[in-house]
């Protein structure tokens, strides 16, 4: 067809009438956005989805992918970059995951910037206010100097364990959430050390180095089961969903929450320490974001919204819980020995009844958020009793 003929056809009234007659009365696609192939996580398309879902990159064997494999096919050792065999659980579409926090790169950087500025202002005002003079010396030197520093290795170990889950995750939405959850752990560890460095500048006799903390982490019986859990989940587990479930769905929700919330944050106040609760508040925010993200993946996507493989996935989540709950219980049981070193004792807080109430809070919260949705049954009294045997 010549250009002249084509031009005439476009402006010819009869041809235009024929074209209009063929147009359906109702639009074929009612989604008025630039990614109609994507399932919306909320009522309207969010900026998070628009950025993360403009392309669904993965190899064609991954459910939900729209690519044919223009990615790194194999890593050294033969492990694939995108491979459905990287996890035992199955999904009809790995691109249905939505991070409830709606974080992608720019909001994540903005959040970190705001948190850093807030921390800088608080640390400066804390140092100038004279609150440091109220801090109990034994709490400062033994608990913050040795055991608070040891907790850095726990947080950093969990950060490192996210390294393989990032490249094994089967969609960009999952990779982004996993990497941010991992970096939050690294940030939590850095904030603890920042606090210890500030204390070292105020008190000449406080050593902010990690020498004693490393010794506690590697040699103390109090930290031994926790260290063994970190080493196992980091080096010995190759299923990336299993890693995420073990870390955020069991270990960090029971052991991690007890250490940071029930011990360091709650006991700091009775020792005149007004700095540690602020630092741990940020870590609690990171935990909440990771916890909600894991529920969106394992509970919502793999169970509630999965119409084909939900029973298969539930069996694996239950099996993993059966495997890692005893390890977590053992870690917390050993940690309770730290109450013998607490300088100031307080009825209802550091006594046996107070500690058991704290244990019950973290166990019950875990049961409601993670055990109940996967129909996992456990003996609550036996678990709490085993943990309390370490007091």
* Share of β-strand residues: under 5%
Shape: globular
Q: Give the helix proportion (percent range).
A: 55-70%
Model regions low in confidence, pLDDT < 50 over at least 5 residues: 1-6
Known CATH architecture: Orthogonal Bundle
Number of helices: 13
- What series of H and E elements makes up the topology? HHHHHHHHHHHHH
Residue-averaged pLDDT: 88
**Alpha carbon gap, first and last residue:** 88 Å
The CATH superfamily turns out to be Ribonucleotide Reductase, subunit A
CATH class descriptor name = Mainly Alpha
The domain count comes to 1
User: Total strand count, please?
Assistant: 0
Structural class: mainly alpha
CATH topology (level 3) name: Ribonucleotide Reductase, subunit A
Q: Report Rg.
A: 26 Å
Largest sheet: none
Would you kindly provide a written description of the structure presented here, covering whatever features stand out?
The protein has one domain: Ribonucleotide Reductase, subunit A. The radius of gyration is 26 Å and the shape is globular. The chain is 63% helix and 0% strand. With 391 residues, the chain is an all-alpha fold.
